[in-house]
Amino acid sequence: MGAALVAVCAAGCAVGTNKGQVCDDAVKAVGTYNATLNRISPDDITGWKQAAATLAARFDTLARESDDRKVKRTLSGMATEWRGVSTGMTPRDISGMQAAVQRQPAALAKACH
Fold first, then answer.
1. pLDDT tens, residue by residue, 48-64
2. DSSP 29
């Protein structure tokens, strides 16, 4: 997911607003999330849930900071999805996380262009 999001700002962030910075910070947040997952044991579901909750909180913050309605709305939706992941994930069901990882890069890319 991180590599796909790096292309979001590389392809063109808005000038004259904070859209570019917010999009860049969202990409960095995903990179931090990915790095965190690499340090968490695959069987540490509590750690995985905490990482998802932390990402949700970061997306909430970025949504509040954004002066672009589309980016704000997208990041708010992404935060909501990650909060659901953080509460709904079980050792046998990580489908919510998988869905978010598959769907969100395209949504963020669309909002950031």
1. 999 999 999 999 999 99
2. H
pLDDT tier at 19 (50, 70, 90 boundaries)? very high
Six-digit token string for 51? 């990482």
pTM of the full predicted structure? 0.84
Beta-carbon count within 10 A of 42 CB: 10
The Cβ of residue 64 has, within 10 Å, a number of other Cβ atoms equal to 12
DSSP string, 45-81: HHHHHHHHHHHHHHHHHHHHH---HHHHHHHHHHHHH
Closest C-alpha to 63, from 54, 76, 80, 77: 76
User: Of 42, 57, 27, which Cα lies nearest the Cα of 89?
Assistant: 42
Which residue is associated with the tokens 């860049």?
Answer: 24
Taking the C-alpha atoms of residue 91 and residue 43, their distance in angstroms, rounded to an integer, is 7
Contact 50, 85 (CB under 8 A): no
